[in-house]
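>> received
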Amino acid sequence: GNEEEEGEMASDAASSLEAVADDVPPANKPDEPFCVEILLIIKDSQAQHGLRHNDYSRYRAYCARRIHRIRKSLHFQHGHKNRYTPKKITAEKVTDVRYLHLVLMTAERAWAYAMELRPQSNTEPRKHFAVLKKLRRAEQHAVELEELCNACPQADARTKLEAQAYSAWIHGTRQFELKEYQNALDSFRTARTIYERLSEALVDAEQRQTYLSRAQEVEPNIQYCAYQIGQLQGTTDVKKLMELRKQAAAMSGTQEFLAAEIDNALSQVREKQAAKLQEVSWHGVMVPVRNEKVRVFLIHVQDSKGEVERAETHEAVMELYDSFLSECQQAAQSVQEDIKAENSGKRRSETIVSQLQQLQSYVSFIRLTKTAERNLLMAQHMSQQFSFGNQLASGSGRKSAAPGAEAATAASQRSVKPEEVVRVYDLVLQNVSDMLDLGGMDEDEQLTRELSALRMCFRSFRCFFSAETFASARKWKEALALYERTAMLIRDAESQFSQCSPSILKDEVAAAGRLSEVVRGRLCAAQASYILDVEAVTDKMGDLDVSEKPLLDRLDSIAVDKGLTSAQPHIIAFPPDFEPIAAKPIFFDLALNHVDYHDLDGRVEKKQAGLAGLVKGLFWG
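>> returned
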C-alpha cells in the first residue's frame, strides 16, 4: 500500500540535504486561485535528483521524502505511530495547493519505481508484472490529480490543462508497455497537442522551450505506435523505424525504454526478411544460407549503408562500424561452427562443406570490406586537420562517409601527425591484401582488377603522407623523392582504373585526381623550401667570423683581425685541445722460454737420515 512505499524511504528523511522550504510549497490564502505548473515542477525535480544520470532509485527516494514532508506540513498523516488510518483526498479538502503537490509526487514516485524496474524486466520476466503494477498505480494517481483539478474551483485553466496532459502521458506510457498501441497513440497525441498549445500561450522563452521539448519527446512514441499499427495492417517501413531509433537515442534518459522497443522491432523485422533470404551470389555462384544468424546479419548488411548516412557525427559513424564488425565476427563464428559440425557428422557431405566454405569466404570478404571502410573514414577524418585536407575532401562523392568532419575537426584539440595517417593506410592496404588472398578470388578477374587498382590508389595516399612526414621534419630531399613517387603511383592507379568499370570506382578515381593536384602543389612548395634552406646555410657561412679561430689555426688565410692588436689577442687556444697519439706498445718476453739454466743440485747441502729414517726405509721403502 501507500504506507509501505512511504515507509521504505522515510528513514532517510533526517539525512536529506534538500531544504523543506524548497520542497514544500507555501500555503495559499483561502479562496485565492492557484496555478500548479506540473511540467516545470517535475522537470526541475528530475534534473536535480538523479534523472540527469538516469538514477531512478534516487529520484524515487526523493519523491518519498517530499511526500512525507508535505503530509507533515498539512498534518495529513495516515494515522499515528503504529496505527494506520487511511485518508483520502477529496475535492472539498483541496483548499490548499499542497494537496495537489502531494498527489503529483505520489504519481511520480510510482512512475519512477516502474522505470527503475524496467531494465530488470528484460532478464527477469516476473519483473514485467511489477512494472505494469507500478504504472497502473501511477495512472490512478494521475487520474486523481486531473479529477481534483477539474473539481477544484480555485485551480486555474493552465493547471487543469497541465493535469490533463500529465494524465494522458502517464496513460499512454502504461498502454505502450501493454502493447496497446492504438490507445497509447491517442493518449500521446492528446499530451502533445496540449503541450504545444501551452507553449504558444506562454510568454517566458525558457518555459516555452521546456513545453516544446516535452512535445518533441512524445513525438517518437507517437511515430512508433503508428508504425506498430501499420505493421499489424501488413505495412512495414524499416527506414522509418531507423529514423525513430535515431530520434529516441537523441532524447533524454526517459526515452531509453522506447529505444529498447525499437531495437526489438528492428530485430523482428530483420528476422522476417531473413526468412526470405535463401542464398547469396559469390563469384557468380549461388551459395545457400541455412544459418538463421547469418541470414539476419546479411539483411543488416543491406541496411548498414543507410545507417551510416543518417549518422551525424564521426564518433557515431565509428560506433556503428564497431557494432557492425562485432555482428560480423559472430556470423563468421556461426559459419565456422557449422563447418565443424558437418565435418564431425557421420554423414559428411562434401557439397555442403564446400558451400559452407564459400559462405565463410563471403562473410570474411564483408568483414574485410567494412574494416577497410572504417579505416578509410578514420584516415579521411584525420586528414581534415591538415592545410590540404579540405582540398582532398572537396567534391567527394563519399560525402556521407565522414559526416560532421568539419565540426569535429574544429573542436578537436589534439593535432594529428602525418605518420599516424600512414599507419592507418597500412591497415587499409593489409585489408585489401587479405581480400585478394581469400579463396576463390582467382576466379573473379573483374573483382581482382578492382582490388588491385584500389591497392595502388591507397599506396599513393600512403606514400603522400610519408612525404609529409619528412617534410614536417624539413628533410626536403627525401620529401621530394616521395612526392615524385606518389605522382608515379597515381598514374599507375589511374591506368588500372581505366581497366575497371567507371561506375563502381568513380569516387576513388576522383580522389586520385584530387590527390594529384595536391601533390603538384606540395612538390613545388618542397622545392622552394629546399632552395631557401640551402641559401640560408650559405648566408650563415658568409657571416661566419674568422676571428673566432685562434691565429695558430689560420696561418694560411689572410684576414684583417683587429683582435690581434688588442690587449688580449687570440693567438692560440688555451688550454690546448686533446690530440690522438699512438698507444704504448705491449712487450711479451718470448725469449724466456728458450733460456737454459745451470744444474745447481751439486751445490745443495745433503741432510743425513737418523735411525728412524733407516728403519722407515727398510720397512716402507
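>> Residues 300 and 477 are 49 Å apart (CA to CA).
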